[in-house]
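1st attempt posting a full record on here, be nice pls
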Amino acid sequence: MVHGAWHGAGHWAPLARLLAARGHRVLALDLPGHGMSARFPVGYFAAGQPGLQSQPSPLVDVTLETAAQAVVAAARDLPRKPVLVAHSMGGAVATRAAELAPELFEHLVYVTAFVPTRLKAAGAYLALPEAKSALGAGLYLGDPAVTGAVRINPRSTDEAYLDELHATYFTGLGPEQFLACAAALTPEQPVSFLASDAGATPQRWGRLRRTYVRCTLDRALPLELQDLMIRDADHLAPHTRFAQETIESGHAAFASRTRQLADILDAVTV
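the predicted structure (as tokens):
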């Protein structure tokens, strides 16, 4: 399992528990610089968070390539080919990993995730009209060209900021569940994940079976954008067109529709 921007392996825990109870072996990864391998801007934990708008990111060395290589390395250690499940920005990582080593994976599952194909890089899709209804513009701190990261502030005490974070990424979660998920976020998302070419080709990435889990209430990656990326991917690799599943869920389906998502993943692995 490959998490999305600012998330970590721990966000998959409730879903992983359900799948393990059904007999699956589940490995949730912390991508480099995320989760338990996170590194933080100097001012992030200081009183008043001084300089958080402009401090260089400690993750400037973490690229899409290094993240994809970490996924490939983890897959090589497994006794059999896994189903690779990716959420949100993790879709760019999974796409690159599958292009690098398609022989290591059985099936790709994108859970309201980026699938960069026609436009090469995930960030290019965010400039399309289909992305215009996305929320979250008020969450980002500083200039990514200066900091080297898309930075958010999960430690904010500003009620309006937390409300926007909740509405954008954690639609459908109650206040306590939202705060638990938000507290586990880290502030840095390396720009490279957005800006780098995932390099998907029909001969390598495109030879794998794949499933897309559409989330109809997503306010971070709108449904129209999800559907456009599905179409682009199917045009690139028409012989392995996406199987599609649909959940009435916001962006964090792993938390808000855990059992329904587990049912889908359970069926994929049969």
